[in-house]
User: Fold these one by one.
Assistant:
Number 1:
Amino acid sequence: MAASYVLVTATAVLLVEAVIVALVLIPQSKASDLASVLQEQAGGDTKVLSLEAARLSAADPGLPAGELLELAVEESGGRTIVGGGRPPEPGYAMLELVIGTGGEIVASSALGIYQPGGTLDVPLPGHEGGGASTTRVGPSTWHFSPVLMRSANGFDTLGYVYVQAPDDAAPRGLQSGEALALIVPGALVLALVVPVGLVFGLLSTRRLTSRVRRLAGVTTAVAAGDFRPRVTVSGADEVSTLERSFNVMTDKLGAAVESARLTARTEARQAERGRIARELHDSISQDLFSLSLLAAGMRRAAPQQLRGQADAMERTAARAMREMQALLLELRPVALEDAGLLPALEGLCRAYETRLGVKVEAVLAEVALAPAAEHAVLRLVQEALGNAIKHANPATIEVRLSARGDVTTVAVSDDGAGFDPDDVTARHGMGLTLMRERVTELGGRLDVRSGAGGTTVTATFSAPAPGQSTGTAGPA
C-alpha cells in the first residue's frame, strides 16, 4: 500500500512534466503553419466578398469594379476581418486589406498602419500567392487571394484580399531552455517525493496492514478447518466491520459444521443399531425360537423324570426370546425428527405392547423441549421399558410425561418383580447407569423406587426452551 502512495505521487509529477513538454511542442508546430493559416484566412474572406459582389452586380449591372468592391466590403456584414465583425484566426496577430486591381487600398482592418486610399508596400502578384518580406510592421508573412466575379468572358478580378502577420505573431511555445528550467525542478520534486511518499505510506498503513495480515491468517486457519480462531475487532472503520462480520460468519460456519458432524454421527449410530438389530433377529432370535420348539417337543416326548428339565429349558428359551425381543425394540430406530416426541413415544409403547404382549399405558402431556432433550427423553423411556421387560416380567407398564412450569417429569412404572436399587450391578447396572447419565446431562435427577409391587423410574429436569443448549447431551 505504501508503494501505491509513491506510484500516485510519481504519476502526478510525470503528468505535470508531460504538460510542460506539450506547451513546448504544440505551439512550435502551430507556428510552422503560419503561411497555411494566412492562406486559409484570405481564401475564406475572398469567397465572402466574391458572393457579395456577384449579388450586387446582378442587382445593378452597371456598377464599376472599384465601387462594386467597396460595396461588397460594406455589404459583407462583418463576415470578414476587414469588415470588423469576424476576428482573425485565434492565436495569430494578423491584419487584412482589400486591394483594388491598381494596388490602391480599398479597406483595412489596421487603419493605424494602412489607410484606405493608400498603396501597399508589397507588389501585387496578379494571381493568388504568398510570401515573406519586410513590411511596415517588420518581417512578415503575407498572402494574396483574388476576388473574382463571373462575366461573359469567364471570371474578372475585382481586387485582392491581402492578409499579413508578423513572423513572430504565432503563439510562441516555451523554449528548450525554459522547458528545461521547469523540468529539472519537477525531477527534483519527484526525487524528494518518492522517499517521502514511501515513509508516509509505511507509517499511515502499518496498522491497517497488520490488521489485514491478521485477518488473512485467521482466514487461512478457517479455510483449513479450524473454526476456533477469532479476529480481534478494533476501530470503527470498514476493516472493523469486516472483522466483526468475519467472526459472525465463522461462528455460524462452525455451528453448521458441528451440526453436520452430529447429524453424521447420529445417522452412523442409527445405522449401526439397525445393523445389530437385523443380525440379532436373523441369527440369535431364530436359534432361540428353534431351541424353544425343541424344548417343547422334548417336554412332551421325554420320560417323566426328564420332563422337569425339559420344561425348565423351554421356560429359559422363552425368557431369552422375550429379552431378545425387548433388546431389538431398544435398538429400534425412532424417527423423532419426523414424528415429534409424543407420536414417537406412543409408537414405542404400541410396539412393546404389540410385539411383547405387555399392556403399556401412555399418559403423555404436551411439553416444549429442545431437540436434544426430546431425544434424551425418548431414549430414557426406551431403556426403562427394555429393563422392565427383561428383568421384571410385568403385566402392565405405565409411561407418564408431564410438565409443571419449566420442570419436566418422566416416569415409567411396572407391576413386575422388584429389585434392590442398591444392588443393581448384576442385573440392572448398565441400564440404570445410562439412564442416570442422560438425566445428569440434562441437569436433572433420576429416582428409582422398587419393591414387591413393582418398580418406578422417575426423571425430573428443567426443560430448556427449543433452540437453547442442553449441555453436552447428544443422540445415542
Number 2:
Amino acid sequence: MSRILAAVIISVLFFTACRPDTYIPKPRGYYRVDFPEHAYKNFDSAGFPYSFEYPVYGKITQDSADKNPFWINVDFPTLGGRIYLSYKQITPATPLSKLLEDSYELSYYHDKKADYINTPAFHNKNNVSGVLYDVGGNAASAYQFFATDSSKNFLRGALYFNVTPNADSLRPINEFLRKDIDHMLQTLKFK
C-alpha cells in the first residue's frame, strides 16, 4: 500500500513539475535621469547682436560648422543635448520672407518621422516674436524655433541629442529642456 501511495505521489509530482514555463517578458526600462534645478545666467557677449538667459548647467560653445561668429551652441553635457543657434541679419539679399521660408522647411523636414508638429507663436517683452515648433514622435529634433524683431535680426534654434531618436526615452529630458527653451526665448533681446 505504501508503494502504491509513493508511486501516485511521485507520478503527480512528475506531471505537475513538467509543465512548460510561461514566458513573461520584462517591461522595457530606461535610464534614470537626475535633473538639476532650473537656474539661469546671462549670455551677453561683447559684439554679439543678441543676448538671452540660459541654464547654468548649459555651456556656450562656438559653432564650428560655419564661419559665422554669431552662430553658437548651448551644450548640455550631463543630458547629452545641444541647442544650435544660428543668427542672420535681415538684408535685401536675405529678406525676412526667405529666412522664414528656410526655417519652415528645416522644421518640416522632420515631418517624415514626426507624429505631429505644433507651431505656437510667442512674443516677449523685448519686442521679439517667433514660432516654437513642437515636433512629436521619433523625429531627430523635438524643438525648433525662430525669433525675430522683423526688421534687422533673425535667430533660429534647434535642439538635438547625440542618440538615436526615441520619443519615449527622451520625453523626460525634452520636457525638462522645454522650460529652458521657453525661458531663453522670453529673455531674448536683440541689440
